[in-house]
Design a protein that fits this description.
The chain is mainly alpha-helical. It is 47% helix and 10% strand. A two-stranded antiparallel ribbon has the order 1-2. A two-stranded antiparallel sheet has the order 3-4. The radius of gyration is 19 Å and the shape is globular. Bound molecules: zinc ion.
Length: 206
Amino acid sequence: MDNANRLPTWAPRVPKKLIRRFYETDAKGIYDGDLIDEIGYALLARCESFITANGARAGELPCPCCSQTVQREELLRCPCGWELPWAAYFKTIQHTQLSGAEPVLEQFRDFVNAFPSARTARQKVLLIDRLIHGFHWYLRGKADNGPTRPVAINLIEGRMGDVVAFLEELTYGDQSTPGTTDNRAEWDANIDVNRNWYPSRREDRA
Ligand SMILES: [Zn+2]
């Protein structure tokens, strides 16, 4: 049985150059269906990996061989014959930006559900734009919620500072899909709440 100890595989984060091209094209008022789908489905696969990895941490995971649900125990075991120590499984999700709490999971689930049924290019662009400008939130009671890390770090290649600087520099124009500049402005305000975390925002920067 070649697959008896198979490790799970996770969709990678999306390359910056694809996202850059997506915004440049949109700023010219062009809907490139192939590009939109390429990015949309790459993000969707990444969201699914994120959801699965967090589900595994919480206690249940799909068998990497046959997809049956396996309970998290010290030794993971599936009726199909697959088994793997949880420690080996967990190692594949550590330090891979595949961890987040419920507010992020909810955003990612919404995207996974909505993107395949979006009918127009414009709807797809707005779903992608909203997804990559999302945030993790801390929840300490209703009056004390606030944005923390941008979810772009979980979806786009690079370190936090690079990803934030990258999103700051994306191209927008008069022809950009209506709504994208509003998402951008909201993102900007949320980043500013924790501006000292980001080299491109620090007021004391040289
Ligand atoms: Zn199995």
